[in-house]
Each structure stands twice: as structure tokens, then as C-alpha cells.
Specification:
Elements lengths: L1 E6 L13 E5 L6 H8 L5 E6 L2 E3 L10 E6 L5
């Protein structure tokens, strides 16, 4: 299945050419954690959302889901 992926902040460094949006092919039983692992961003993702709702990394995905990954944010 194909999912739509949006990377925020420094997570873009894990995408080809540093793009913020891309498509990723996953097995039919793929999870958000599978997306993170395929990117090589283990231990870098602070939060995730699927189709606009906060989601656990164990969330199973469906074709054409929109997956948003967020890194740790620093602020003052």
C-alpha cells in the first residue's frame, strides 16, 4: 500500500533530497513505526498523526493514509 508522508522540522533530513512530503510503499499491515524505521529515524520522532489525529507508533495504516511525523521541538 502507498501512504502519504509529511515530515516536520529536522526529520526532513531522512527524506530523499530533504523534501518535506513524499509517498512511501508499505506492506498491507504496515504501521507508523514501520514508516519511522524505513526512514531510519528511530529515536528521532517525538509525535505522529494519521489523517489529522494524534496516533501511536503502533497504529496500523490503510492505503492513502496521511502520516505526519514530528521531531523534538526546542523553544524558549
Amino acid at each position: 500500500m502507498i501512504v502519504q508522508l509529511k515530515l516536520w522540522g529536522n526529520l526532513r533530513r531522512f527524506a530523499p533530497k530533504g523534501v518535506a512530503s513524499l509517498e512511501m510503499e508499505l506492506p498491507d499491515d504496515g504501521t507508523v513505526d514501520d514508516v519511522v524505521h524505513r526512514l531510519g529515524a528511530d529515536h528521532e520522532v517525538f509525535a505522529a498523526a494519521v489523517n489529522g489525529k494524534v496516533a501511536a507508533l503502533s497504529t496500523r495504516l490503510a492505503p492513502n493514509d496521511r502520516v505526519f511525523l514530528f521531531d523534538h521541538l526546542l523553544g524558549g
